[in-house]
Amino acid sequence: MRNFGNFLKDERGDFVQYALYLIIVVLGTAPFLAILTGAVGGKFTQFTNKVNQIGG
Questions:
Q1: What angle do CA 20, 26, 27 make, to 5 degrees?
Q2: Confidence check: pLDDT of 1 > 70
Q3: Number of domains present in the structure of the chain
Q4: I need a labelling partner for 39 at 20 to 30 A (CA). Which of 1, 3, 8, 21 fits?
Q5: Which ranges does the record mark as transmembrane (predicted)?
Q6: CA–CA separation, 27 vs 33, rounded Å?
Q7: 8: which residues sit within 8 A by CB, 6+ positions away?
Q8: In a domain, 37, yes or no
Q9: CA dihedral of residues 23, 28, 34, 35 (deg, nearest 10)
């Protein structure tokens, strides 16, 4: 248990710290990306419908 405590107190930047930063970045950008993909998906659907009307 003592080694694990030292591992958590280590401030050099280790795997746990980088993993936490990665989780924060992913969770912070996920809502924006979800909105963006929804908007792009809607525009893509409109585009394919127009192309299908022309080539139909």
A1: 90
A2: no
A3: 1
A4: 21
A5: 20-40
A6: 10
A7: 16
A8: yes
A9: -170
- Cβ distance 16 to 8 under 8 Å? yes
Q: Which helix (H) or strand (E) holds 50?
A: helix 15-55
Residues of the domain holding 28: 16-55
- What pLDDT does residue 55 have? 74
Nearest to 30 by CA among 19, 42, 38: 38
pTM, two decimal places: 0.49
Residue 7's pLDDT is 64
What gap in Å lies between CA 23 and CA 39, rounded to an integer? 25
| 2-56 pLDDT, tens digit each | 677 776 666 666 788 888 889 999 999 999 999 999 999 999 999 999 999 997 6
